[in-house]
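sry for the spam today, last one i promise. struct tokens for design, 173 residues
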């Protein structure tokens, strides 16, 4: 281990320990504050049913543990109602804050969303000119791959039920 690395590790460990102590202290204070709020809510709901004022003192802030102070304590967790803060350096430059309607800047039909474009070729030359009976006869002697191609092509084109049933039988058999 080099001299510089050794010195850095000697400095880094106490700082790390100090940050852990601060983290533990702050999390304990946050837990105590949550319990206090729950108690206040319970007392408040009880005071609405019974007459008379309730004297409640806010909890005293927790004191940091003794020891060397860290550079900065970690930030308090955000409340559940507020959105998470995002540092400016993490926001891309191309993100706009203003709302733009799709219809104003996109091509016609874009509001339906981009869809896949798929081109399926005939399973064999002359398929489109064949009758359902001719296709079924050819499927009975064909492979499972051919049956799958016929089923896909037929389902996107003519949709002949007898051809689709024959393709299903060929795939199962």
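last one done:
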């Amino acid at each position: 281990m080099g001299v510089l690395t050794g010195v850095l590790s000697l400095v880094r460990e106490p700082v790390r320990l100090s940050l852990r102590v601060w983290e533990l202290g702050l999390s304990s204070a946050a837990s105590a504050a949550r319990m206090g709020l729950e108690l206040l809510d319970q007392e408040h709901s009880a005071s609405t049913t019974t007459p008379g004022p309730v004297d409640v003192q806010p909890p005293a802030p927790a004191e940091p543990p003794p020891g060397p102070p860290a550079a900065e304590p970690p930030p308090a967790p955000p409340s559940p109602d507020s959105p998470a803060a995002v540092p400016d350096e993490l926001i891309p430059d191309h993100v706009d804050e203003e709302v733009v309607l799709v219809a104003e800047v996109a091509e016609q039909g874009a509001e339906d969303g981009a869809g896949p474009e798929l081109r399926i070729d005939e399973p064999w030359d002359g398929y489109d000119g064949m009758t359902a009976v001719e296709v079924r006869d050819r499927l009975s002697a064909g492979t499972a791959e051919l049956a799958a191609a016929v089923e896909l092509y037929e389902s996107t084109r003519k949709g002949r039920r007898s051809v689709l049933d024959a393709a299903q039988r060929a795939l199962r058999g």
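The first helix runs from residue 3 to 49. ok im logging off now
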